[in-house]
Specification:
Pfam families: Beta_elim_lyase (PF01212). One of its GO terms (molecular function) is transaminase activity. Belongs to the threonine aldolase family. The chain is of the alpha/beta class. 43% of the residues lie in helices and 16% in strands. The chain folds into two domains: 101 residues, Alpha-Beta Complex (Aspartate Aminotransferase, domain 1), CATH 3.90.1150.10; 235 residues, 3-Layer(aba) Sandwich (Aspartate Aminotransferase, domain 2). Helix 3 crosses helix 9 and helix 11 runs parallel beside helix 13. The longest helix has 20 residues. It starts with 5 loop residues before the first strand and ends with a helix. The structure holds pyridoxal-5'-phosphate (PLP).
Length: 346
């Protein structure tokens, strides 16, 4: 369908790096495991990323949605309130899981470029709950923030929010599906970026290009309980040694890789700015570029016109198109997208 097209719809389209494919093939020739965390590749992956991110333990799970939902189940009881910035994935694309699997209510607070200001959180905690409201149990940050265009959370905000949570007896989870991009863009370690959090989720299959899977990270006790929750959700997947082997190579090969995506995202945005002016929005922090369609022009229609020119973009809502940079998008594809957008919109 998308053969030959420049596919900007998602960093899921990055494809699997050669080193990861080779590692998968080698691991696929070994004896499979029983699934009780006894696979050497899975253990290596979980240890490697626990160390990178500064957590005691990690668990390899099929999707980042599942990593998030296990965290919700462990930190909250049904009916509890979770506080997050407006537009978070947990309250948007993932909302049905959040309601159906965890049974929690997400309160979306005012966001600044997708992120929660410490004073906004403090005001929400100080404000009167409605009669019958359960107490807020968990604060939920997303870094980078997808819907805001891959924006990076200001480090001092995250630290201060961590302090507020500790004082108020709340837990803090970071949906770090794309925390790798924040790591590449800021030069900070994952451990520094996630220091304030009690738990963290990371996608392995987006810009990194692992074949599948995500990680949930936390304390040793938290991960022991996560193992049980994963089982109740029918997600004790096995054998997964060959997937973990591919993921290890994808993690190891990320240095430089993501920086290229960020450079091309800035190039793409500069081209859009030149062609469209303010519709191109602000310059990207990482690998996501959002474009507003002109009043009266539906994003879906523009996406169709772009598709005919061999450029695939994802409508996020009626008036916003998303372009995500990844390993299969080179400089020529960026130039092609700028040209196609100029013809379709300008
Ligand atoms: C993609 C994404 C998820 C969910 O990941 P899946 O592996 O598709 O379930 C969660 N949070 C954010 C911010 C995402 O972008």
């Amino acid at each position: 369908m998308a053969g030959g097209a420049a596919d900007f719809r998602s960093d899921l389209m990055a494809g699997i790096p050669a080193a990861a494919r080779a590692a998968m093939l080698r691991a696929a020739g070994e004896a499979p495991e029983m699934g009780l965390r006894d696979d050497p590749h899975q253990s290596r992956l979980e240890r490697m990323v626990s160390e990178l991110a500064g957590f005691e333990d990690a668990l390899f799970v099929p999707t980042c949605t599942l990593a998030n939902q296990i965290a919700l189940r462990l930190w909250c009881r049904p009916g509890d309130i979770v506080l997050t910035a407006a537009g978070s994935h947990v309250a948007g694309p993932e909302a049905a899981s959040t309601a159906g699997l965890a049974g929690v209510a997400v309160r979306q607070l005012e966001a600044a470029r997708g992120h929660l200001r410490p004073e906004t959180l403090r005001a929400a905690l100080a404000g009167p709950a409605r009669p019958g409201d359960q107490p807020a149990r968990l604060v939920w940050l997303e870094n980078t923030h997808m819907r805001a265009g891959g924006t990076i959370a200001p480090g001092d905000w995250v630290r201060e929010i961590g302090g507020t949570c500790r004082e108020a007896g709340l837990r803090l989870h970071i949906d770090g599906s794309r925390l790798w991009n924040a790591e590449a863009a800021t030069g900070l370690t994952l451990a520094a970026l996630a220091e304030a959090a009690d738990s963290l989720s990371l996608s392995l299959n987006k810009a990194l290009g692992a074949p599948a899977g995500s990680l949930l990270l936390g304390s040793r006790d938290f991960i022991r309980e996560a193992l049980a929750v994963r089982a109740t959700l029918g997600a004790s997947w096995r054998p997964v040694g060959f997937l973990a082997a591919g993921a290890i190579e994808a993690v190891a090969g990320r240095a430089g890789r993501l920086g290229d995506d960020h450079r091309r995202a800035r190039l793409l945005h500069a081209g859009f700015s030149h062609a469209l002016g303010p519709l191109a929005g602000e310059a990207p922090d990482t690998n996501i570029v959002l474009v507003a369609t002109p009043p009266g022009t539906a994003a879906m229609e523009v996406a169709e016109a772009l598709g005919k020119a061999g450029v695939l973009a994802l409508p996020l809502d009626a008036a916003t198109l998303r372009f995500v940079l990844h390993a299969r998008i080179g400089d020529a594809a960026v130039a092609r997208a700028v040209d196609a957008v100029r013809r379709a919109i300008a």
